[in-house]
Each structure stands twice: as structure tokens, then as C-alpha cells.
Specification:
299 residues, 15 helices, globular, mainly alpha, MetI-like fold
Length: 299
């Protein structure tokens, strides 16, 4: 009797009129999210506002920092290189991460938990340690060059580090868990009955995957691609260590302008430009994935 009373609360004060018991009233909902909104305003919106103000007013309205970005080709080249590397890293993470997530989703509960634990261990490893590991592997006298030399594949050590290829490989390794986990979660939420129904109606394994599994997993693909792309745009440690001075990206350039040259307005202009470009790319990603019925179904 007591259990039945506790399982069905009669207090109507937290219910919305005409709604279910799981929904709160509007004032209570606003009160619950007020701390989060306050934290978001103080920790994100206010600093972004100061950044934009610093890039525009020094102390009067001045667009010279933005004109400098447009007029000097080197800065546009750095911006283009940053987006190119971020795009390649996102594509590589998807091509490597989707099969891993698909294999994890097909495992039984205990094996899937073990595989997820392995992904989390890679995620929790410090970025600095993983970047130095790639230096050990790819340097002139590193593991990769020594192995190829001993096997007779090359006569002299190759330049495998301090180039864009090394940056893409190292950043893909670091960001791969951010692609695997959202796709894995999306795949695990797909009822197996859908695939079984498609196979029963005559679809082959590849057709069932392309017509059922892949479209329904696009929300996870969207989340993973957005996270990988945005994180790749702001990466600092890995490109600085593995790429060297010849692979300058926007994050490294901003750090140089702010800490070495002390040109804070120009650093703020670069940051604002990168922020606007990132938001634009997120909208493009969303529009591209919203074409799918699988993504539209959760919108």
C-alpha cells in the first residue's frame, strides 16, 4: 500500500496544466535552469563579448585587425590550412571510428563494456603523452623508420614528422574516441527488429546497413563529426609538437600573437574570425545531415 502511494505522487504543484506528471511548470523549469544559464553567461558569453569588443574597439572602432587578416595572404593561408587539417582529421576519424563503433554495437553487453572501457582509457590518456608517443614513433631514428630500414623497405630514414601528414595522423589518434562514442550510442539505440525486418523482406546485409542502420545512426555521426571538427580547429599541443614551425595553424598563431608579440587586438580578431567560421561550419554540418530521415526523426 505504501509503495503504491509513493509510486503515484498526488502533488499537483509541479505539474503543468493538462500535461503529464513528468513535466514541470514554466516558472519551476526556469528556476531549475537559471544556475546553468548564469554559469553559461559568466563562463562563455561574457568572455566572448569581451573578445569581440577587444577586436573591434581599441579604444575606438577600428577594423584594422580584420583588414590585416584579409589583406595579408599568410593569415588566410593559415586559416585555410587549419580548416583543411580539421576536415581531413574528421574524415579519417569517421572512416576509422564507424567500423569500430559498429563492431562494438554488435557485441554482447560484457564485451561491449570492455571495448567501451578501452576507448575510454584512450580518451583519458593525456594529450601531451600521446603526442610525444607519435614523436617517438615517427622521428628520424624512431620506431617506424628503424623498422622499415631493417626490413629493407627504405634505404634511408624518411621524413615522417614535422609535416601535415604527421599532424593529421596524431590528431586523428587523439580525437578518435570523440567519434566512436556518439556513433556507438546511436547504433545501440537502433532496435534490432528494424534490421531483422529488412532482412526478412529480402534486403541483403549491405542493403540493410545502407537503408536502415546508416540513416538511423546519422545523429551519432553528426555529433561525432561536429565534436572532432571543432576540437581539431582549436588544437594547440599536438600540431605544435608533431607539426613543428612549418605547420602553423590558427591556434598556434593566436598563441604567438597574444604571448610573444603581445598584439591582443589582432589575436582577438583571429579568435573571432575562427569562432564565426566554426559556427558557420556547424550550421553547414547540421544542414547536410538533416537531409536524412534518420536525423530528422530526432529533430
Amino acid at each position: 500500500m505504501m509503495a503504491s502511494v509513493l509510486s503515484r505522487p498526488n502533488d499537483q504543484s509541479f505539474r503543468r496544466p493538462g500535461g503529464s506528471a513528468s513535466r514541470y511548470s514554466r516558472p519551476l523549469s526556469l528556476a531549475l535552469i537559471a544556475p546553468l544559464l548564469l554559469l553559461l553567461s559568466i563562463g562563455f558569453l561574457y568572455p566572448i563579448g569581451l573578445l569581440i569588443k577587444l577586436s573591434l574597439f581599441t579604444p575606438e572602432l577600428d577594423l584594422s585587425s580584420y583588414r590585416k587578416i584579409i589583406e595579408q595572404p599568410i593569415y588566410l593561408s593559415v586559416m585555410a590550412r587549419t580548416f583543411k587539417i580539421a576536415l581531413f582529421v574528421t574524415i579519417a576519424s569517421f572512416l576509422l571510428g564507424y567500423p569500430v563503433a559498429l563492431a562494438m554495437a554488435s557485441l554482447k553487453r560484457r564485451l561491449a563494456a570492455a571495448a567501451a572501457a578501452a576507448v575510454f582509457i584512450a580518451l583519458w590518456s593525456p594529450v601531451l603523452v600521446r603526442s610525444y608517443a607519435w614523436i617517438v614513433l615517427l622521428q628520424r631514428n624512431g620506431v617506424a623508420n628503424n623498422a622499415m630500414t631493417e626490413l629493407g623497405m627504405v634505404e634511408a630514414p624518411l621524413k615522417l614528422i614535422y609535416n601535415e601528414g604527421a599532424v593529421i595522423v596524431a590528431m586523428t589518434h587523439v580525437l578518435l574516441p570523440f567519434m566512436i562514442l556518439p556513433i556507438f550510442a546511436a547504433l545501440r539505440s537502433i532496435p534490432q527488429e528494424y534490421v531483422c525486418a529488412a532482412r526478412t523482406l529480402g534486403a541483403g546485409a549491405s542493403t540493410a546497413f545502407l537503408r536502415v542502420t546508416l540513416p538511423l545512426s546519422l545523429p551519432g555521426v553528426f555529433a561525432g563529426c561536429v565534436m572532432c571538427f571543432i576540437l581539431a580547429l582549436g588544437f594547440y599541443i599536438t600540431p605544435a609538437l608533431v607539426g613543428g614551425p612549418g605547420t602553423l595553424i590558427v591556434a598556434t598563431l593566436i598563441g604567438q600573437q597574444a604571448t610573444v608579440l603581445l598584439d591582443w587586438p589582432f589575436a582577438a580578431a583571429l579568435s573571432t574570425t575562427l569562432l564565426i567560421a566554426t559556427l558557420t561550419m556547424v550550421l553547414v554540418f547540421r544542414q547536410a545531415f538533416s537531409i536524412s530521415k534518420g536525423f530528422a526523426s530526432v529533430d
